[in-house]
Amino acid sequence: MSILQKISDIEAEMARTQKNKATAGHLGLLKAKLAKLRRELIEPKSGGGGGKGEGFDVARTGDARVGFVGFPSVGKSTLLSNLAGVYSEVAAYEFTTLTTVPGVIRYKGAKIQLLDLPGIIEGAKDGKGRGKQVIAVARTCHLIFLCLDVLKPLGHKAIIEHELEGFGIRLNKKPPQITFRVKEKGGLNYNAQVEQSELDKELVQSILKEYKIHNADVTLNEDATTDMLIDVIEGNRIYIPAIYVLNKIDQISIEELDLIYKIPHTVPISAHHKWNFDDLLETMWDYLKLTRIYTKPKGQLPDYTEPVILRKDINTVEGFVNKIHRTLMDSFKHALVWGSSVKHCPQRVGKDHILMDEDVVQVIKKH
Predict the structure, then answer these.
(1) Residue 90: what pLDDT?
(2) Mean pLDDT throughout 167-187?
(3) Is the dihedral of CA 206, 211, 215, 218 positive or negative?
(4) Which of 280, 293, 284 is CA-nearest to residue 109?
(5) pLDDT in tens, 25-76
(6) Where is the TGS domain positioned along the sequence (predicted)?
(7) Spatial separation of the C-alpha atoms in residues 175 and 186, rounded to whole Å
(8) Are 362 and 321 in contact (CB under 8 A)?
(9) What are the backbone angles phi and psi of residue 133, rounded to the nearest 5°?
(10) What is the pLDDT of residues 232-257, one digit of tens each?
(11) Of 72, 98, 257, 320, which residue is most buried, by most CB within 10 angstroms?
């Protein structure tokens, strides 16, 4: 039986099973089996295997990468063309973009790479279409624009989210507060710091058994679900912020537009008329959480034209110094910082100091 057949059988069984306390253990096991099968699809066992999809290994350029994901003909290519001036072959029928087309925009001094990912269709996570390679590229993005047609948004949104979830991409979610550690012996050490509405020791044990794990420490620091536990055990989940870009607002009324603005993580636009692009770019900047740092050579004014852009995981003085030059850290003595991250201007700081947006930094070297 093929993996796809096994997946559809398990999904059918899950749909048939009533959700209640008595079936929680059974459903938990089915979810664990499903997660393992999906992983086999994404990472085939070593040995032969097909070549990579053409045009899917896009070199990283710039300070951040934004992926455009959406059904065919929702206006992704028009949006990308109008944002970046990149000509991605645009036609009025489905599936015009077949490879990943990179474009780069400059916004607030940062270079942001935009990737138009080919139309994701139902079944991408099961290897249909070219969705498999597309989602592999989507996993490397720092932000995803889910492009939806304002006239049929909810059905498309649910399908695309389901596809991305199946590939271990979690949109607008935080990693679960679950500590999980496999050990040599000692059985299961289960510790729930808060009251659990779904998981208990038996259910955790049966899910771990499905993974052939018999000795582990599991600490639940929040009210966790079976899915959250499986995410932590699998360990290959990626948490990416996403913005729902609702295109074609020129085709709806003002009242409908007011309703759309109330949906979280949503920006309504018209790619064709270039409406509301400033709001989209500003929201993109907020979600990327980039930090602009200006350099100040000794005895000179700060250079406000070319900021050094840091992502939130490396926004320390050390991250800033490494971004300028890898060997500079060897001769680093301390740094002088002007800006909102310090109490005094300038303030002398060490390499672990966390910088904030639009700080000015002068690096002092050892003699």
Answers:
(1) 44
(2) 88
(3) negative
(4) 293
(5) 788 888 888 888 877 766 654 444 444 444 455 666 678 888 888 777 777 7
(6) 289-365
(7) 27
(8) no
(9) -70, -35
(10) 888 888 899 999 988 888 887 787 77
(11) 320
- Judged by phi (left if over 0) then psi (alpha if -120 to 50, else beta), residue 73 lies in left
Q: Which residues contact residue 16 at a Cβ distance below 8 angstroms, ignoring those fewer than 6 apart?
A: none
| Residue pair 119/138 in contact by the 8 Å Cβ criterion | no
Q: Which amino acid is at 123?
A: G
Q: What is the pLDDT of residues 259-303, one digit of tens each?
A: 777 888 888 888 888 888 888 889 999 899 888 999 988 888 988
Q: What is the residue whose two structure tokens read 């492009």?
A: 147
Question: DSSP alpha helices (H): ranges in the chain?
Answer: 3-16, 24-42, 76-84, 131-138, 153-166, 201-210, 226-234, 254-260, 277-288, 317-324
Residue 312 CA: distances (Å) to CA of 121, 200, 356: 32, 35, 10
| Mean pLDDT over each residue of the chain, to the nearest integer | 80
Measure the CA–CA gap between 207 and 233, rounded to whole angstroms.
Answer: 9
